[in-house]
Amino acid sequence: MIEFRSVGFSYPNGVRALSAINATIQKGEFVFIAGPTGSGKSTALKMIYRELKPTFGEIWVNGLNVGTIPPKRIPYLRRTLGVVFEDFKLLHGRTVFQNVAYALEVVGTDRHEIERQVGRALQLVALGHKADQNVEHLSGGEQQRTSIARAIVNGSNLLIADEPTGHLDAETGWEIMQIFEQINKEGATVVVATHNIDWIERLQKRVIFIYEGETIEKYIKGANRLGLSNSSVLSP
Q: Which domains can be identified in the chain, with CATH numbers?
C-alpha cells in the first residue's frame, strides 16, 4: 500500500527535514506517524500525496512511484486517497453537503450518485442532520468531521490525516480518533500523524516514530517501551 525506501527530503535552503525513512504500511492497517513538532511528520505525509517530492529515495503508493509520476498524473493519484488536515480546509459560504459533494463534482460524478455517496459519508461521521448548514456555523469538531466525510466520500481505500485533532479539545479529539478507527474497521488503510501520546496509548495501534529525521518503528503497548514518551520527545 505505502512503502518508503530510504527517503530523504531537503528544503531549497538546504535544511534537511528527513534523512533516511524506511517504512512499509500494509493494506488495512491503522498506523500512527509520531514524533515531536518539526520532526518531519507532515513532510512525510505530503510526499505520499505528492505535495512535496522526495529529494532522494522512493515512495510507492498503491503501486505507483509517486516521486516519478508526471505533474499531470498527480490529480489521479490524489483521487485514490483522502486527506484530512489540521485546519479543515473547508469551503466557507457552502453547506456541509456542498463541501463533501465537491470532491465528487470535480470528477464529474452523476448527481444521483453524489447524493447517495454524500449521504453515506455524512452518516458515518454522524452529520446527516446538519447537511444543509453552512460550515462556518459548525463547531470545530463538526468541521473536522465534515473534512473526514469529504476525504472518504469517493470510496478511496487510503485515508491520510495530518494532526487532525490539533485544533480540538481533548474530548472532541477523541471522538475524531474513534471515527478514524471505525473507518479502518470498514476496510480503509488509515495513517495519522500526531504528537499526541494519549491517542497512541489509548488506541494501541502500530506506531512509526520519526526522530531526528529517521524512523524508529515497532508495535507498542505503551510508548514508554521505546523510551520516547517523555515530554522532550513527544510534546509540541
A: 1-79+194-230 (3.40.50.300)
